[in-house]
Write a structure and sequence with these properties.
The chain is of the alpha+beta class. The chain has five helices and ten strands, in the order αααααββββββββββ. β2 and β3 (162-166) form a beta hairpin. It is extended, with a radius of gyration of 26 Å. The termini are far apart.
Length: 275
């Protein structure tokens, strides 16, 4: 019983990130193999009965080693959980640094106090302000962290870091994909949530950007959405303003109203708006 409790305790610790899950899976497989060897070895009388188990014990570690090398080389950024980053927002791409705007404000004060040409001083300050605004923008990559087709259709797929929607029907009449972002906003501040969407010529399907926080839907919460619209062929920006009123979390929905054609969405961003 003690061994089982120890295993469950270790399993809970290992399940916190993809690397731990791989280690847990390997431990379980070898645990079952040892169990079979210990209980049934005397019943495996012939070489034909024992050979599959022997080959499994030889080949399985090599297979797992190859898989691990592939993941480390090709997908190393997916081997860690958000909690293992110093700031969880770093998990989603190039984050905004809260200290940067303050540092840039100090730099503006310094430039204003220097004895340089007024026109040149103004140009420097304008460039600093542009950098400051960029530092408040959080890009949200379109990758495997998105929950595709949350209402059960097969309309959404990810191709070349873009969300692509196709299909003329969905079980709920509409569908989409969403991502949950925790502790990424600052309570009381207002943000612009935006993305870039475009459609093929002749598309009749429509797109909507929809956001809400993570509170119980039966209680007070913030929820905002754009109207459903056919994006232009050349592409256009969809955006809405979202105020973090109840918590620091947000769920971003890329919604799809089925129809003829194809819609692709990219460049999802959260930008802090000026007070």
């Amino acid at each position: 019983m003690s061994n089982i409790n120890d295993f469950m305790k270790n399993a809970k610790g290992l399940s916190k990130n993809p690397l731990g899950i791989i280690a847990l899976f390997i431990s379980m497989i070898y645990g079952f193999a040892c169990l079979v060897l210990g209980v049934s070895l005397n019943n495996l009388n012939t070489l034909c009965e024992r050979l599959p188990l022997i080959w499994f014990i030889i080949i399985f570690p090599l297979f797992m080693l190859g898989t691990f090398i592939f993941l480390v080389v090709k997908h190393h950024e997916k081997l860690y959980a958000p909690s293992e980053y110093r700031y969880e927002r770093n998990f989603f791409g190039s984050p905004s640094n809260k200290e940067v705007p303050s540092d840039l404000d100090n730099l503006i004060v310094y430039v204003e106090s220097t004895e340089i040409d007024t026109i040149q001083k103004k140009e420097i300050i304008e460039e600093i302000k542009k950098v400051k605004e960029k530092s408040k923008t959080i890009p949200i990559p379109i990758n495997n962290l998105w929950n595709l087709n949350h209402w059960g259709s097969n309309c959404a797929s990810i191709i070349d870091n873009k969300m692509v929607f196709t299909g003329t029907s969905a079980p709920e009449g509409k569908d989409g994909s969403h991502i949950n972002l925790f502790n990424i906003l600052e309570n009381g501040k207002t943000y612009e949530i935006s993305c870039f969407a475009k459609s093929d010529i002749g598309t009749e399907a429509k797109f909507q950007l929809w956001c809400h926080d993570q509170k119980d839907p039966n209680s007070s919460r913030t929820t905002v959405a754009t109207d459903y619209k056919i994006p232009s062929y050349n592409g256009e920006k969809f955006s809405l303003n979202f105020k973090a009123e109840y918590n620091n979390d947000i769920r971003i929905h890329l919604q799809y109203l089925p129809g003829k054609g194809r819609i692709e969405v990219r460049d999802v961003r959260i930008s802090e708006l000026k007070a």
